[in-house]
Amino acid sequence: MARYTGPACKLCRREGMKLFLKGERCMTPKCAMERRGFAPGMHGKQEQFRQRTSDYGLQLREKQRARRIYGVLERQFRRYFEIAQRSRGQTGANLLCLLESRFDNIVYRLGFADSRPQARQLISHGHFLVNGRRQNVASALVKANDVIKVHESSKQNAYFLALGQVLEHRSVPEWLSLNAAEMSGTILALPTREQIDVPLTEQLIVEYYSR
C-alpha cells in the first residue's frame, strides 16, 4: 500500500498548524512550526500576503488537513466519506467518528503511542490484541465495548517497559477507559462530535465532496 514517506514537519508547515506527527518533539522548540512557521517552498513566506483564498481552496485545505492528521490517503478518505454519507446523522460528524474509530487512532488516544504514525508502526509489528486476538491492521475500525491490550510478550519490550512508568499519568478521552497496570483500554462508546477535539471544520469537507 502507498504511504507518505516525506518529511512530516513539512506537512505541518503546509497546513499552518501542528499536526503532532512526531509526538513529543512537537512540544519542544525543535518543532518546525516553532522555528519556521510558514509554508514550505521558496515562496512560503510570501503566501500570507497573497489574495484571499477561494472557497474551493478553503475546502481543499480542510480536507487535506483532516487526511494528514489521521494519516489517511485520498482513496481511503473518500471511502470513509461515502460511508458517512450513507449513515444516519450529519455526514461531517459521522466522518470524524469513523476516523476516530480507526485502530491506530485508538492506540494513540489511549497513550500507547506518542503519535498516530508511531501507533501504526507498533500495530504493524503485532504488539496489540483486540478482544484477545492479535490485530496488525492499523485501519481496522473498532466498536463500542472492544478491549485493546498490549500483547503479553510485548510487555517485556524496552519501549513498553518504559511506557509503563508514565502510562498511569496520561489522560484519555471520556469515551475511552484506560487500565495502566494491565496496559489495556476499553472503548466505552463511539465518540460524539463534541468529544472529538481535532481543530477541523467538517462542513468544509462535506462541501468539497458535494461539488
Strand content: 5-15%
The helix-strand sequence is HHHHHHHEEEHEEH
Classified by CATH, the class of the largest domain is Mainly Alpha
Looking at this structure, what is the CATH superfamily of the largest domain?
Answer: Ribosomal protein S4/S9, N-terminal domain
Across the major sheet, the strand order is 2-1-3-5-4
CATH structural architecture of the largest domain: Orthogonal Bundle
Largest sheet: 5 strands, antiparallel
Q: Write down how many β-strands occur, each being a DSSP E stretch of 2 or more residues.
A: 5
Overall, the morphology is globular
Return the average pLDDT rounded to an integer: 84
Give me the number of helical elements: 9
Helix percentage: 25-40%
Number of domains: 2
Low-confidence stretches: none
Looking at the structure, the CATH topology of the largest domain is Ribosomal Protein S4 Delta 41, Chain A, domain 1
The Cα radius of gyration reads 18 Å
Rounded to the nearest angstrom, the distance between the terminal CA atoms is 28 Å
Topology:
Layout (H helix, E strand, L loop, with lengths): L7 H8 L16 H4 L19 H16 L3 H13 L4 H10 L2 H7 L6 H9 L3 E3 L2 E2 L12 E4 L7 H6 L12 E4 L4 E4 L14 H8 L2
Antiparallel strand pairs: 1-2, 1-3, 3-5, 4-5
Please, could you describe this protein's structure?
By secondary structure, the protein is of the alpha+beta class. It folds into two domains: 8-99 and 197-209, Ribosomal Protein S4 Delta 41, Chain A, domain 1, CATH 1.10.1050.10; 102-187, Structural Genomics Hypothetical 15.5 Kd Protein In mrcA-pckA Intergenic Region, Chain A, CATH 3.10.290.10. The chain contains nine helices and five strands, in the order H-H-H-H-H-H-H-E-E-E-H-E-E-H. A hairpin with a 2-residue loop joins strand 1 and strand 2. The longest helix is centred in the N-terminal third of the chain and has 16 residues, at 55-70. The protein has a five-stranded antiparallel sheet, with no helix packed on it. 38% of the residues lie in helices and 8% in strands. The model has no long low-confidence stretch (mean pLDDT 84).
